[in-house]
Amino acid sequence: MIRNDNVSPSMIRVAGFARTTQAVENVDEILALEDTTALSYKHSVAPELGKLGKPTDKSRGWWVHSVLLLDSYTSRTLGLIHQDWWCRPDNPNEADEKESGKWADASYFTRQRLQSHMSRVISVCDREADIMSYLADKQSHSERFVVRAKHARNLVDSEAKLFEHMDSHPVTGGYTITIPQKGMKEASGKSKNRPSRTAKLTLKASAVNVKHNGKEHLLNVVYAQECHSPQGEAGLSWMLLTSEPIDTLAQQLHVIDIYTTRWRIEDFHKAWKTGAGVERLRMTSPDNLERAASILCFIGVRLLQLREVMSLPVYLRKRGKVEAALGMENQSSSSVFEDDEWRVLMALYKPRAHKGKEAPKMKWAYQSLAKLGGFNDSKRTGMASWTTIWEGWDDLQAQVKGYRLAKALFEAGKTL
């Protein structure tokens, strides 16, 4: 299939999007996380791909804009609903259209695929989406959004611009978050560790009337600011433009909660690249490479869903959603694994006290897959790396292939 010119890479993706459409049926509020990443290649096919950095760079590839759907209540990943792929030309004047159009395009195709479900969808975007034409398009279709503000926009009823205007507003409340430890790189390229810490933030909220190209646009704004950041470190500051109500503190905190899920699409990029290894592919035809990469993006989603079985219950318990945490841990592995996959995994690592023929729990499946990839939990975190999960998945697929072949031979009455 990967080498078949009659198979369109875009239609492979459309089939995956259709599966995601089925997953949203009973979800009360859906978050549509959007972000762009680059797929980078240096092997023989690279000259036929697009610019990622300088035109002289050896690394070339695609830019991909993805829309990932989550269940707003549990933050559980539902799947991909849209991707836009393009090669950036060396000469910007040769581009077919402005890349900023990816935001409106994503809304259009998400709208076409989800139809009546769109009333339950909230688009969640970073500062790159602070484009007035995009926000106006969302408003014209009565669609919901949370977008981090980038521009100091002019306001109708104030001489001050947006950021100054919100600075002058009274505090409506506050909240505390834990910022996790993270490995980072300095401008010099030297690695450094950012230790975990607790941050206290204040909230301000207001409706504003923005002036743009002679038109007025009414937006709600929630502004979160860190009170006292550590010396030498920039404090947290989020100015969020939204369609959501902000009349109460609970509503304002909900807008913040929605935006904090945006990091999940970055986890998807890790699952696609580090886990499923999309940038390790070495097809020598751009079309073959795109077909294989398109298949791997949905495998990346499945790896992400597997990892969430361990990460999300911790998050949900911290938020007091104990029942949702238990539901995540106790869900059937059949929601991610095909029948042959979990049966082979059970033959390798039979669950304790498991009786009957139904699929075991997802938590057991994650731990078993990690063991298959060589995970021994030496750091006592319970979380395997993306590479380990992929190695376990790859090993499982090889064994499933052998199992299916043996089953077919047995059913045909043949022996090896």
Name some characteristics of this structure.
12 strands; ten-stranded mixed sheet; globular; Transposase Inhibitor Protein From Tn5, Chain A, domain 1; single chain; Transferase Inhibitor Protein From Tn5, Chain A, domain2; alpha+beta; two-stranded antiparallel ribbon; 11 helices
- Series of H and E elements: HEEEEHEHEHEEEEEEHHHHHHH
Silhouette: globular
Determine and state the CATH class of the domain at 286-411.
Mainly Alpha
CATH superfamily of the domain at 286-411: Transferase Inhibitor Protein From Tn5, Chain
Low-confidence region ranges: none
Instruction: Tell me the CATH topology of the domain at 286-411.
Output: Transferase Inhibitor Protein From Tn5, Chain A, domain2
Descriptive overview:
It is a single chain. Among the domains are: 148-261, Transposase Inhibitor Protein From Tn5, Chain A, domain 1 (Alpha-Beta Complex); 286-411, Orthogonal Bundle (Transferase Inhibitor Protein From Tn5, Chain A, domain2). Helices cover 38% and strands 23% of the residues. It has helices at 9-23, 102-114, 132-140, 162-167, 249-260, 263-275, 286-318, 322-330, 339-348, 362-372, 386-411, and strands at 30-41, 50-51, 60-71, 77-86, 121-125, 144-148, 173-179, 182-185, 191-194, 197-212, 215-226, 237-242. The strands form 2 sheets. Strands 1, 2, 3, 4, 5, 6, 7, 10, 11 and 12 form a 10-stranded mixed β-sheet that branches. A two-stranded antiparallel ribbon has the order 8-9. A hairpin with a 2-residue loop joins strand 10 and strand 11. The mean pLDDT is 90.
In short:
The protein has helices spanning 9-23, 102-114, 132-140, 162-167, 249-260, 263-275, 286-318, 322-330, 339-348, 362-372, 386-411; strands at residues 30-41, 50-51, 60-71, 77-86, 121-125, 144-148, 173-179, 182-185, 191-194, 197-212, 215-226, 237-242.
